[in-house]
Amino acid sequence: MRKSKFKVILSNQENKELDVEYELHDSILAEKWIKKIKHLKRVAINPIESQIVDVSNLQSIYNEFCEFANLQPIDIKNFNQDKLNQLHKIYEDQHEVLSKRKNNDILYKFHHSIHHNEGIKASKDKLVVGWGVYEGPLTEQFNCYSYYAHQIEQNNIYLPWSELGKKPFTYYTDKEPNNQKRVNELCKPHTTFRAKFFISFKDITPSHFTPDFSKWFDQYKQAWFEAHNINEYTEIHEYSAPLLAHTYNKQDLTDFKFIGIEI
């Protein structure tokens, strides 16, 4: 594959622009990704998927979601993890129908709000860029999990995990049901390939799985592998991401925002 170079334009808090030069990683996944981006480079990014919108007020967002979905709200005052798991199941059950309706941003805002209130805040260690529903037909199913980097390096571009579900370690820590059917249903390997990316602000070396999680996962993983046609799931798949492009620019990009991309 020929080397492909492009620029990501960012701006700091003083609105001074910075061009960061990138070179596309030599992989089929990266090549497919850049083709998607070429179609979207002049399309406005989605503020929900790009973690720009405030999603902290779950009660208000949930009420708006129920109004949109024509559902009777359940009581979520003083919610705990069990209640958040219940809300996630409601989101899953409604996704197929509501994702086909127009002006459905509240569906995705509700999903992000659930995870925000689980403690998965809008990340301070990376800049996320996504087009969400504006992506249209560019979402596809593809084996992304075979392309995971052994670690994440500062300022490089990576593909985020973008599934309607949870990663196995998150499933475990969220105390989701201990049964094979639900593990197979909600735990997802990375097979949804979206025109989305993130720039990491720092180096990240994947943590080791805890002994308690490994013991728990051993009960379910073989059947889960077979259900999703995969052969392994490691710390890399939980904590790293597929590399899309690298840069030699290692300056601190914390608090920069995305302006555009030149290809």
Verbal overview:
It is built from 9 helices and 9 strands. It is globular and about 50 Å long. The longest helix has 18 residues. By secondary structure, it is an alpha+beta fold. The protein has 2 domains: 182 residues, no CATH class; 71 residues, no CATH class.
Labels describing this entry:
single chain; 263 residues; alpha+beta; 2 domains; 7-stranded antiparallel sheet; two-stranded antiparallel ribbon; 9 helices
Write a brief caption for the model.
This protein has nine helices and nine strands.
Helix and strand topology:
Blueprint: E1 5-11, E2 17-24, H1 28-40, H2 58-69, H3 81-98, H4 105-117, E3 126-129, E4 140-141, E5 157-158, H5 168-173, H6 180-186, E6 192-193, E7 197-200, H7 211-218, H8 221-228, H9 235-239, E8 243-246, E9 257-262
Antiparallel strand pairs: 1-2, 1-9, 2-8, 3-7, 4-6, 5-7, 5-8
Q: What's the alpha carbon Rg, rounded to whole Å?
A: 19 Å
Proportion in β-strands: 5-15%
Please give the domain count. Answer: 2
Structural class: alpha+beta
**What share of the residues lie within helices?**
25-40%
**Which assembly state applies to the chains in this document?**
single chain
Low-pLDDT residue spans? none
Strand arrangement in the largest pleated sheet = 3-7-5-8-2-1-9
Straight-line N-to-C gap: 16 Å
Number of strands: 9
